[in-house]
Amino acid sequence: MDDKKKNDIEKNKEEFESVCDKEVDGENIEICFICHKKFDINKDDESYYRHGKYPMCAYCAEFYGYYR
Ligand SMILES: [Zn+2]
C-alpha cells in the first residue's frame, strides 16, 4: 500500500471517529420524545427510533408498541 493511500485511510478514519464522538463506550444517550426521560438507546432492548428519527425509551416503546 503506498503512503498516500494510507494517509487517506487514516484521514477518513479520523473524520469518522469525530462524527461518532457522541457515542462513548457503546452508550448512546437519547431523550425519549414522549416522556423526556434520558436513556441509553444502545442498551435497552425495546427502545428504538420511531420513524427512524424520534428516540423512544423502552417503557414507552412497550406502552405504545401496538402503534408500531
Ligand atoms: Zn419514554
Task: Please trace the helix and strand order, writing H or E for each element.
Answer: HEEEEH
- Strand order within the widest beta sheet: 1-2
Shape: rod-shaped
Number of strands: 4
| Main sheet properties | 2 strands, antiparallel
User: DSSP strand (E) fraction?
Assistant: 15-25%
Domain tally: 1
Count the helices. How many?
2
Q: Unreliable runs, pLDDT <50, ≥5 residues? A: none
Could you tell me the radius of gyration in angstroms?
Answer: 17 Å
- Small ligands present: zinc ion
Mean pLDDT: 83
- Helix share, percent: 25-40%
Cα(first) to Cα(last) distance is: 48 Å
> Structural class of the secondary structure composition?
alpha+beta
Element layout with pairings:
Blueprint: H1 3-19, E1 29-31, E2 38-40, E3 48-50, E4 54-56, H2 58-63
Antiparallel strand pairs: 1-2, 3-4
